[in-house]
Structure formats: structure tokens, C-alpha cells
């Protein structure tokens, strides 16, 4: 594929490619020297699940690999122990070494569902950051001013509102930028919310005599709540390792107005096919039918075509054939816990008391996925997409 076609393919779906013509220059240089480009992506150390939102830059990395380049995944073991300042006006929890190691092993199992292992470097930024002496850290902090740091929205907003900002929060983007120096990245990928950090990486590289990276930002994908970006922190995500049933159930719960965006960002469906669906939705066709298509496309990518077919059939069995409503109230539960059903129903305000729950169970009035529960002591382990039915008209979907 010639350079311009590569640029068109790599730029597809991005928000920013900076500086202008920078990507072309990098690709031409790589072609002339025969040296693969090093394309960097930072991985959040705070949780083990890779979700559809994070898969967007991973799939872009895979495209770079298909063109012969190297993916460099930076796992933030050092920065994870600092705690990342976020748009929620607080820092992410500071992690222990054991939590970081456990999360890394889980990540390794997942990323190669998308990336080529032989063209991927997985690096821990503690390799170089742990070795920095106090004088090295002072030198790093001298490369950037407080005024520039306060240009970032969530710092400036907190400063104006009088919300405390810890000094270590300023260090996080500096250490993240220093990662680009350490691995000599040619290109760095990230969400639009990471644009400040990515640009900072260019400046820090240049100050250390390293050729500055190109930055490429990807759109943020809203989570299943339809409001906030998909995030482990918000619990509104669809993980790529979830079962087909869970994927299907969560996908069917997204707001109708996000169908086209999910098809565009989270699947490999052709542009013309997505445009056709968009036109049909505008014409008033049932959004549920196209959510089914979306769910099957996602499941095919991370499981199989057969798994997608089976999940679709189960959806029809539970919803369409049984006449369940399209819109069902959702309740979020901790999937790592087990719940005594009578107590759970009371906690979810579905009954007035556990004794009422027991009475309904005795009468056959409590069902899970259309199957009546007969055991007063039934222990329920949550599965996303399960449908709890209480009486004839009350339905709850578990998330």
C-alpha cells in the first residue's frame, strides 16, 4: 500500500493528527530507512478489563502493525502508584505493587485478542521512572511551568473553584510524557481527553533531544449509560472478555442515539453499511433491530459468528417470544458477590420486605430469565443481562 493510502487508512476515525503532515513524514522516513515506527499507547493500571472504548486505539495499533510497525504498550505501574488525576475532580486510587502485577497479567491475556504478539512490546514505566534520582526528577519538572499545567481544564476548573490540587497530580502527566522519551516513540495514540498529555510528550521529548512524536487522538465512546465516557471507574463498560450473553445484554441497553456511533467505533462494519442503517433509523425503523445487528457484530469480533447467532436466539427467546417489554429498568450489582435472593429483592426496593419476597417465591411470582425460583434460600450470582421478574408486570435487568 502506498504512503497516501496508508495515511488515509490510519487517519480514518481519528479526531486529531498533529502536527499536520507529521504522519506522512514519519511514514516516508520509515519506508526509506526500513525501520518500523514505534507507536505508543499507555494502559491504565487501575483495572483488568479492556472494554470497547479502549479497544478503539488498540485496533488502530493493530492497523499500524499490519503496515509493519511496532506497538509499544506502556503499562503504568509507576504512574499507577501515583494516581491519575481525572475529569471527576479527584485522583484514581493509588495501587499497590501486587494490584499492578495482577492487573498486568490480566491485560496480557486480553490485548493479544487484538494485537499481534510478535510486533508488540509491553513495557512497565517503572523500568525507567523507578531509577530516576531526585535530581533527575527536578530536571524533569523544570521542563514545564505551573501556568502551562493549569491550562488543562480539570486543573484550571479545580483551581478556580478552590478544590485542592496535590503536587503529585502535576507529576503524573510529566512522568507519562517522560515515557515517550524512554521508549523513543514516533507516534502516540490516545483519547481526545488525553490530548494535553500527548502534546506534553512531544515537548518533553524535544527538551531531551529526542525527535518529537506525532499524536493521534481517537473519539471517546460513551458507555452503556449514554452519558459518560465508557470507563471501568463508572461501571458503564462492555469488556471484550465478557460472555456473549453479557455483551448482548449490555449492548441492547445502550440508548438508541448511540447505535451508529457504536457501529462506527466499536465494529469493523463497512462505512456504506453503517450509512444505510443510519438512513433506516432516521426513517423510523425499530432501533431494537439494529441493536441486535450491533450486538452480533461485537460478539463476532471477540468470540465467533456462532456465538453471536446463539446470543441472538437467546435474546429472542427471552424478550421477543416471551413478550417482555423493550425498555426494562436496570439495576447494577457487584458481579463478584453472591446475594440471597429474598434480601436482594428488598435491597433493590422491589418488595417491601424479605417476608414479602418469600411469599412471592412461594406463589411462583419471582422468576430469573423466565424460570420461576422455588427455593426461599436461593443464592443469586449476578450475570449482566439477566432479567428478574417480580409478579406479572415488574421486570429488572441486571447490569
TrEMBL record:
Catalytic activity: tRNA(Tyr) + L-tyrosine + ATP = L-tyrosyl-tRNA(Tyr) + AMP + diphosphate + H(+)
GO annotations of cellular component type: cytosol
GO BP field: tyrosyl-tRNA aminoacylation
Primary location: cytoplasm
Binding residue positions for ATP: 232
UniProt-listed Enzyme Commission number(s): 6.1.1.1
Keywords for this protein: Aminoacyl-tRNA synthetase, ATP-binding, Cytoplasm, Ligase, Nucleotide-binding, Protein biosynthesis, RNA-binding
Subcellular locations according to the entry: Cytoplasm
Record Pfam families: S4, tRNA-synt_1b
Broad class of enzyme this protein falls into: ligase
One Gene Ontology term of the molecular function aspect: ATP binding
Residues spanned by motif 'KMSKS' region: 229-233
CDD domains registered for this protein in UniProt: S4, TyrRS_core
Residue ranges occupied by any RNA-binding S4 domain in the UniProt entry: 343-382
PROSITE patterns from the UniProt entry: S4 (PS50889)
Entry-linked NCBIfam families: tyrS
Record note on quaternary structure: Homodimer.
HAMAP family for the chain: Tyr_tRNA_synth_type2 (MF_02007)
Annotated function: Catalyzes the attachment of tyrosine to tRNA(Tyr) in a two-step reaction: tyrosine is first activated by ATP to form Tyr-AMP and then transferred to the acceptor end of tRNA(Tyr).
Family per record: Belongs to the class-I aminoacyl-tRNA synthetase family. TyrS type 2 subfamily.
Protein name (database record): Tyrosine--tRNA ligase
Organism in which the protein naturally occurs: candidate division WOR-3 bacterium
Upper classification of the organism: Bacteria, Bacteria division WOR-3
